[in-house]
Amino acid sequence: MPCRHEGFFGNDTLLPIVPRILTSVVMSGPSKDDALGGDSQSPNPESNDHEVVRDRITNRTFNEWYSEQQFQNNILEGQAYFNGPSPPKDPGQHTPSKLLQCHRKTSYARKNAPQEGTPPEGLFWIGSEFEEQVVVPFLQAMTTPNTYVTNSLWIDTEIAIGGTELSLRGSTDPTIVTADAEPLFVTEIKTTTSLDHLSEPKPHHRAQLHAYLYALDQEYDHSITEGMIVYGSRKTLNIESFHIQFDPNFWERVVDWMRTQTEYEQSTELPPATPERDWECNYCSFKHRCGEVETPYTDTGCDGLLPVFDKYDRQNLQEYLEAHEDRDARLTPTLAHHFPDLVEKFGVYDWRCSGCGASFDWNTVDWNGNGDDLPFCPDCAEAGDLVTLSGPEADSQLNAGRE
Ligand code: SF4
Predict the structure, then answer these.
(1) Hey, CA dihedral for 303, 309, 310, 311, is it positive or negative?
(2) Is the pTM above the cut of 0.85?
(3) For ligand 1, is residue 290 a contact (CB within 6 Å)?
(4) Given a cut of 70, is residue 287 above it in pLDDT?
(5) Which atom of ligand 1 is nearest to the CA of 104?
(6) Residue 315 vs residues 72, 233, 311: alpha-carbon distances, Å
(7) What's the sign of the alpha-carbon dihedral 235, 236, 242, 243?
(8) What is the dihedral of CA 67, 71, 72, 77, to 10 degrees?
(9) pLDDT tens string 147-176
(10) What residues form DSSP beta bridges with 191?
């Protein structure tokens, strides 16, 4: 059977470019004064201002507004490097918050494979607010007269294991310090849906805290071997805390995980699909690409948009395409149907018949955008051969996955 899919379009160069969508969507709209007929003191009750406002309140404008707020705030806070995709990481470099997770998922994320679905911005926001607005003041109230709370400490350390050089970089959660800002006790703050059945900290959270303890212990003259993982319920605001003592055996497991991950990336091998936890695939942003769901993709590499796949988040998609402009990244025909307003800016790959090889401009083929009912090739169909349209590299990608 011929494949019903469109092209797979690979990219491997990543640049941190960020869309400034709000500028065109919101800022180009009428100013408040304009919308109020030029007199903000005396709005005309007969005007259609309320309709203008009503029509502007959509999920899309909200997402674009929120994205712009984040963009500006990152610059305000001196963290412009958070804007846009991160550059691909050096294989030996690791981040404490990404340890002890599925190796394949980690590779996808580190190499900026396009993420599926919508990022959990709400969870990020709640986590950050809980830490800054609730936990930090609480810790300040709990400190002794001789100790203080710092929001975070930067860590940067090197580890050599069996000829492999590793580095760990990141920043801690609130830490109890001396009056000279010397760390004494590190916390790791997490929010969770429920504290029920939480009898011990999750291994990857333990690994994260161990990474901080290891790095700080290396950096300071005095020993730093203790910390605490604090889980806060997003529903009740109750907390559950776990005292953590640095465990060399557990740390050995974490270092071994880092070494393995580094070796996969040095060999440019796609790591095996081996989640560390049962539920990891359910929440994975690459599960279609990986092949853990009922879609025609499996063991797909880190580059390129999936053919016929339409579950990319708009913001993620734009960032991906902008970051790969130098490689002429474009929308797939499927995504062009879903995001027609992005067509002019990014362009669209052609359909191509997997049977006869003919190419067709994406919008010359009659199709309603339904991924379950892909168009047939006009050339082959005329010859009586019902071959669907697909893209040039998609065949090898998908067929390889089926073998
Ligand atoms: S779907 Fe599961 S196995 Fe595949 S990359 Fe994600 S976590 Fe790993």
Answers:
(1) negative
(2) no
(3) yes
(4) yes
(5) 5
(6) 16, 29, 12
(7) positive
(8) 130
(9) 999 999 999 999 998 888 999 999 999 999
(10) 232
Q: How many angstroms separate the CA atoms of 297 and 5, rounded?
A: 10
How many whole angstroms separate alpha carbon 48 and alpha carbon 64? 24
Q: What angle do CA 283, 60, 20 make, to 5 degrees?
A: 95
Long-range interactions of 26-33: CB distance < 8 A, separation 24+: 26/56, 26/61, 26/64, 26/65, 26/68, 29/56
Gap between the Cα atoms of 311 and 287, Å rounded: 12
Rounded Cα distance between 82 and 75, Å, is 9
For residue range 345-393, what is the model confidence (pLDDT) as tens digits? 999 988 877 777 788 888 888 888 887 777 877 777 654 443 444 433 3
Residue type, position 263, single letter: E
| pLDDT higher than threshold 60 for residue 395 | no
User: CA-based angle 52:54:56, to the nearest 5?
Assistant: 70
Ligand 1 binding pocket mutation candidate from 100, 101, 102, 111 (most atoms within 8 A of CB): 102
Higher pLDDT among residues 15 and 185, named by residue: 185
Pairing type for strands 183-192 and 226-233 reads: parallel
Q: Is 217 a pocket residue for ligand 1 (Cβ < 6 Å)? A: no
Task: Count Cα atoms within 13 angstroms, Cβ side, for 294.
Answer: 1
391: exposed, middle or buried (C-beta count within 10 Å: 0-12, 13-18, 19+)?
buried
The residue ranking higher by pLDDT, 30 or 366, is 366
E strand intervals along 11-138: 93-94
- Is the C-beta atom of 280 inside 6 A of ligand 1? yes
- The DSSP 8-state label assigned to residue 173 in this structure reads S
Residue 105 Cβ inside 6 Å of ligand 1? The answer reads yes
The 3-state DSSP class for residue 374 equals coil
Looking at domain 87-303, which of 1.10.10.60, 3.90.320.10, 3.30.200.20, 1.10.260.40 is its CATH number? 3.90.320.10
CA of 278 to the centre of ligand 1 (A): 10
Domain segments of the chain as ranges: 48-83, 87-303, 304-403
pLDDT at residue 97 greater than cutoff 50: yes
